[in-house]
Amino acid sequence: MSVTDYRVLGRTGLKVSPLCLGAMMFGGWGEPDFDASARIIDRALDSGINFIDTADVYAAGQSEEYVGRALAKSGKRDQVVLATKCHGVMGEGPNERGNSRRWIFQAVENSLRRLGTDWIDLYQIHRPDPDTDIDETLGALTDLVRQGKVRYIGSSTFPAHQVVEAQWAAERRSRERFVCEQPPYSLLVRGIEAGLLPVTEKYGMGAIVWSPLAGGWLTGRFRKGRELPRTRRAQRLPQRYDMALESNQRKLDAVEQFALLAEEAGLTLIQLALAFTLRHRAVTSAIIGPRTMEHLEGQLGADEVRLSDDVLDRIDEIVPPGVTVNPADAGWVPPELAEASLRRRP
């Protein structure tokens, strides 16, 4: 990968690789062996990837530990843009989660320890917290930046209106602002094209998209006439994989058409899927989450594929712009949709 291949994260001047190595599968959620995980990390860095994304909640901190140990072993910490997140449940106590100042201060110390580093390049809030004022969150994050423990801050899976609210709160209260957003985006999950990506462009934010392979749907394993794979993710998130649901049948129909389109274009389905996300002008990086070396090798180089306008037009015919085939794939359900009491006058 040449120097010109790297992309600027929003308006920060920080240059990151178009493919970001997601570390969710390192540890108990995927590859439990540290040495195997370290080899994948080393191979990714050797290929030119300089961006690694993890989170405290992944395998209860084990992912962070593996990433930290691997970087210490290779001596490449200074060359890596290291990102992690907080928000998820990390203990039984009511304050060991969320976006409060109390928890953020504790969570960042825990992440620094597990990662074996003195600073985190990009510290992200993993999900919105309806119980916490965004100014409380931004105030805590601003203090961490001023202390030198965090370089930049970002959000993950925030709806467009809350991204705007955070930008306005930062301006009004002289807080550090979110420099990027991390939303779900793929051939099957295009809802962010309607509102979120235009918002990130307007505010000069980077977009680091997660699940560009749609949770495995775009790897080639899900095809008509084949026995569908039974994965841990399918067990944890049945609404995204249960083939008794019409929305998932529609996904399978779309995948079949995408597979044929990729074959016509001389590409693998994985290359088509990753190249599609990276072609959107608002997207900075796409997060790949390999569990094995084979997975990684099948995804490396996809950032060098440039899809023609004809292929992009065909993609739009299969899944129109702004459409998420199965709404369950959107990544986060607003409490107003999940709780009936928030929609009904008492």
Automatic annotation (TrEMBL):
<dbReference type="InterPro" id="IPR036812">
    <property type="entry name" value="NAD(P)_OxRdtase_dom_sf"/>
</dbReference>
<dbReference type="InterPro" id="IPR023210">
    <property type="entry name" value="NADP_OxRdtase_dom"/>
</dbReference>
<dbReference type="GO" id="GO:0016491">
    <property type="term" value="F:oxidoreductase activity"/>
</dbReference>
<feature type="domain" description="NADP-dependent oxidoreductase">
    <location>
        <begin position="18"/>
        <end position="319"/>
    </location>
</feature>
<dbReference type="InterPro" id="IPR020471">
    <property type="entry name" value="AKR"/>
</dbReference>
<dbReference type="InterPro" id="IPR050523">
    <property type="entry name" value="AKR_Detox_Biosynth"/>
</dbReference>
<dbReference type="Pfam" id="PF00248">
    <property type="entry name" value="Aldo_ket_red"/>
</dbReference>
<protein>
    <submittedName>
        <fullName>Predicted oxidoreductase</fullName>
    </submittedName>
</protein>
<keyword id="KW-0560">Oxidoreductase</keyword>
<dbReference type="GO" id="GO:0005829">
    <property type="term" value="C:cytosol"/>
</dbReference>
